[in-house]
Every structure is written in C-alpha cells, then in structure tokens.
Amino acid sequence: MSTRIRCTYCLLTKPGSSFTEPEHVIPESLGGKWHDPKVCDQCNKEANVIADQLIANDPLVVFLRNAYRIRDRRGLPPPCKFSIRVPEGGVVKVTFGEGVAAYQAGMSASVIDSLGLDPSDEDQLEQLVVKALDLDGTSPLEPLGLARAAQQFAAKPTPPMTWSRFMAKIGLACGRDAYGDSWLDSRQAAIMSEDLLGSAPPRFSQRTHYPPVESVWPFEPPKHQIWIKQYEDTAVLSVALFGQVLGAVPVSDEMPPQGAYSAWWFDPQERSFGRSTYMGMWVGTAAARLTKAGHNVVTILSDEHPLFFVEDGPDGPADLPIPTTRADSPLDAFRQLIESQEKQDDG
Questions:
Q1: Who's near 220: CB < 8 A, 6+ residues apart?
Q2: Which structural domain range is residue 165 located in?
Q3: Which of 10-14, 23-27, 324-328 has the weakest average pLDDT?
Q4: CB neighbours of 24 closer than 8 A, spacing ≥ 6?
Q5: pLDDT of 99 strictly over 70
C-alpha cells in the first residue's frame, strides 16, 4: 500500500511519489534552510514561481541581501537598480551595491542644460532624487528609504499580490508545524491556501512592508524571525525578514498547545535555523543584546515562574521595553516573582 501525504499548500492528500523535492519555507536565496517535505512537487514549483522568485528579486529584498552579504547558490545578488523619473524630463538611475547608492544621469542634453546640471556630480543627482520622491534632504540619503522607494519605481515592480502569497506560504508551513496536521482543516488554512494558489485577490492582504519604527525586541537584523502571538481574540503569525520587512497573517482563534513551537528563527548569514517559542526567542534575543552591552543576564524559562534578571551594567540599569521589577539579586527577583504569583492565585 503506497504512502499518502497531505500537502501543506494545496491541502490535498496525494501519493508519496508526488513529494520528491522538499520545499524551502524561507527561499534559499534569502538564506533559508527549513525544508518542508510535505509540500507536493506541483505546489513547490508553483510557489517558487508566484512567490519565492518574485520576493528574491524585489528591490528592497535585493538591497537587504546585498547590504548583509547574503549568498545563494549563484553567489551574491546583482546590485539593486532602478530609475527615478524627474519632473523636468528623463530619469536619475540609482544603483545600490553593498548598501551604498550611486547616481547616474539618464536625460537629454537640453534637460541637463536647463537644470544647470553637472552629470558627474552625484550630489546634484541625489538632490534631484530627493525632490522627485519628496524625501528628507539629509545627505547622504538613508539607503533603506531609497530601497523602499525602489519597490514603486523599479522597471519591474513586485506585483502587489506577491507579498500576500508569500505570507500565506509561510503561514501554512508554520501553522502546520505549530498546531499539527489537524490545523489544515481550519478556516485560516483554507483561506491561506486560496491566497497562495488562487487567482482571486488574497483575503489576508499585506498592506505595506516597512522597517520597524524603532529597534525593539525580538527584531535582530539580519535574521529572519517568525512568531505567533495572541492579539485580542486571534493568534497572529508575524514575520520579520532581515529584521526589517514585516508582515502578518491570522493563523488561529487560539494559541498553539502548551509547549508547542510558536516561533522560528533563521540566520541567513550562517544558514542556520531553529525552533523556539515567542518567549524563548524574545528572551534569547534580549539576553544576547544586553550581554553585548555589558550586562550580566540570568534567565529561567518556566511556564509557572519565568525569570529574566538583568544586573546593572557599566552605564547603569538596562533600558527594557517592558514593565520591570527592581531586585537586588536573582534570588530576590525569584522570591518577588513567587510572592506575586501566590497573590494572584489567592485573589
């Protein structure tokens, strides 16, 4: 009797012979290493064409791959190139290499004369870009902001539905991993399958893709980080590519079972991959950052009594983005934690 497997993407049960090439949940071009062997070959190929390849060639992603030196099987990606049309006529061609922008005039001699422009003066060309894009004129321009603008002005902009399909693909893989095979029968899985493979506009659309407003945990560029967290009545899967490009999809009406993996991290530079929980990833990232800043950190990840103790560093107490309790030692912190829990239980 031949083995039959249910596909993560199309949700259909097919013969085992239909599953010969494991799917990269995060594309190999982005340094992904997690393989899902339960994606059928047909869906593997289709997802590669309608999502992975387009994401890998998105100007913002190409810029980030160059900036962080992320290689794929062909090496580093080519420089990110795009053209900004100026109101006076013609374009300024912008090229990113290793996070640095270079400018080249692409306009007629009459336009150059009317602007009093020196085509070899990159500062002047940069100011034309500032004016055309209505950007902050601080020089040099912030490269990430320009790379985001490239998404709109590239010769071949990324189709709007691509990001929604890409998020649906990741959501299906993570949802099955966190909740088990039975989750594939959920309404969220059905919507994401249709968003990925269907022709209609995705229901779980991605409105925008932007860098974090501030450097908050658990973002840790250039790692890709994915986690499930409860927001009101919905468990939402959040994705931060390179710690910069954000997206989210609802995956369930409740969190995964206690102890189940609810977070995933990828290091595209080291090409490593690991599973964790949201709290584990948050605490691990926080501890690493604080240790680098000169703090001694003690963590205990326990469902009943989690503990995160940070000793004052050379510049005083750590600045944590969460409410904190002052304690003189890990033992004192643990004592306060238990007393607080006992009061909650009694109340």
A1: 243, 285, 288, 289
A2: 4-52+160-276
A3: 324-328
A4: 32, 33, 34, 35, 52
A5: no
Number of domains present in the structure of the chain: 3
Question: Would 143 be classed as within a structural domain?
Answer: yes
Specify the pLDDT at position 129: 86
Question: Quick check: 270 and 187 in contact, CB under 8 A?
Answer: no
In sequence order, the β-bridge partners of residue 310 are: 297
In a domain, 70, yes or no: no
Q: For residues 87 and 178, state if they share a domain.
A: no
- In order, the DSSP letters of 252-289 are ESSPPPTTS--EEEEETTTTEEEEE-HHHHHHHHHHHH
Residue 282 is assigned to a structural domain of this protein: no
Place of tokens 């399909």: 165
User: Per the domain annotation, does 72 fall within a domain?
Assistant: no
Write the pLDDT tens digit of every residue in 129-164.
888 877 766 666 777 777 777 777 666 778 889 999
- DSSP helix/strand/coil, 2: coil
Average pLDDT, the chain: 87
Phi and psi at 156, nearest 5°, equal -125, 80
